């Protein structure tokens, strides 16, 4: 799994996209992104929504968009490479001190990477 790619400094009120990749995965890949607030509260976002959190906070879940795509054709062994994006609009009041992580579940194995940004301007 590659490192999460994105700007180290986020701009308050400006759309942000983070990128994450995983290699040699079977075709039943699941991806989710976690946002951990400074107070320790965690929110999970995936292509299918956020589960219970989405029902409790429908407006918040629509502010975060997750996409996944296959970046290579299946190899002879059926494995592919995937990329995922996580788009949202950061704000100093909600995201300062937060961290983001990307999690791929492929072939029954979980891979996760974290991304710590430096500041929100």
Quick structural gist:
This is Ig-like domain-containing protein. By secondary structure, this protein is mainly beta.
Describe, in plain words, how this protein is organized in 3D:
With 121 residues, the protein is mainly β. It has a single domain (9-120), classed as Sandwich (Immunoglobulin-like), CATH 2.60.40. The chain contains three helices and nine strands; from the N terminus they run ββββααββαβββ. It is elongated, with a radius of gyration of 15 Å. Residues 49-60 have low confidence and may be disordered. This is Ig-like domain-containing protein. InterPro entries: Ig-like_dom, Ig-like_dom_sf, Ig-like_fold.
Largest sheet: 4 strands, antiparallel
Number of strands: 9
CATH architecture name: Sandwich
Percentage of residues in strands? over 45%
Topology-level CATH name: Immunoglobulin-like
Strand order of the largest sheet: 4-3-7-8
Low-confidence stretches: 49-60
InterPro entries: Ig-like_dom (IPR007110), Ig-like_dom_sf (IPR036179), Ig-like_fold (IPR013783)
Domain Ig-like: 12-116
Protein name: Ig-like domain-containing protein
Organism: Xenopus tropicalis (Western clawed frog)
């Amino acid at each position: 799994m590659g490192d999460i790619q994105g700007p180290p400094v986020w701009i308050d009120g400006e759309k942000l996209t983070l990128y994450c990749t995983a290699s040699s995965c079977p075709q039943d890949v699941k991806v989710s992104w976690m946002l951990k607030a400074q107070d320790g509260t965690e929110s999970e976002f995936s292509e299918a929504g956020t589960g219970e959190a989405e029902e409790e906070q429908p407006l918040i879940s629509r502010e975060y968009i997750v996409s996944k795509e296959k970046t290579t054709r299946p190899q002879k062994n059926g494995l592919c490479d995937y990329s995922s994006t996580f788009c949202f609009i950061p704000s100093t009041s909600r995201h300062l001190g937060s961290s983001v992580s990307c999690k791929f579940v492929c072939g029954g194995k979980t891979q996760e990477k974290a991304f710590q940004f430096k500041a929100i301007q």
